[in-house]
Amino acid sequence: MGLFGNKKDDKNELPPLNFPELPKSVPSFEQEKSMKVSDAKEIKDAISNSDVPQMPSVSSEMTEKPLFVKIEKYKDLVNTLGKLKARLNDADHILQNLNDLKEKENRELAAWHSDLEKVRNQLLDIDRKLFE
Predict the structure, then answer these.
(1) Is the predicted pLDDT of residue 97 greater than 90, yes or no?
(2) How many domains does the chain have?
């Protein structure tokens, strides 16, 4: 019992070959006398200005050979990059702390200026009342 059945009869029969008819005359590729030089220039310009995508030029990146690195050097590089990332995170936290301290300092200085201005105004008020 076959899955695909017996088709031994079909293997011997091939479909007939149908070829297209060949042209009776061979086209001439010589330049026709009626075509002017200006017509040829117009055609060339139209072809060169068409929106046909151009093939990208081969860059030096594509022609470079693959780079092989020893696994020990790669591991050292990965470790070094990890250390750099950790240091950058530490520096970021330190800068954030410095910004917080600076804001706190500015608030304290603003409060001191405000208190000093109040004392100055009170002193001027007392001075004005004494000398009236």
Answers:
(1) yes
(2) 1
The rounded distance, in Å, linking the Cα atoms of 35 and 48 is 19
Percentage of the chain beyond pLDDT 70 is 70
CA distances from 126 to 70, 83, 117, 121, 132 (A): 83, 64, 14, 9, 10
CA 81/CA 70 separation, integer angstroms:
17
Quote the tokens at residue 22.
Answer: 């060949």
Angle at 52 between CA 50 and CA 53, to 5 degrees: 135
Q: Specify if 44 maps to a domain.
A: no
Confidence of residue 30 (pLDDT cuts 50, 70, 90): low
Which structure tokens are listed for 56?
């990208």
Q: Which residue has the tokens 């030029």?
A: 57
Range of the domain at 99: 68-132
Q: What is the C-alpha separation between 119 and 18, in angstroms, rounded? A: 113
Q: How far, in Å, CA of 79 to CA of 22, rounded?
A: 73
Q: Does a structural domain hold residue 15?
A: no
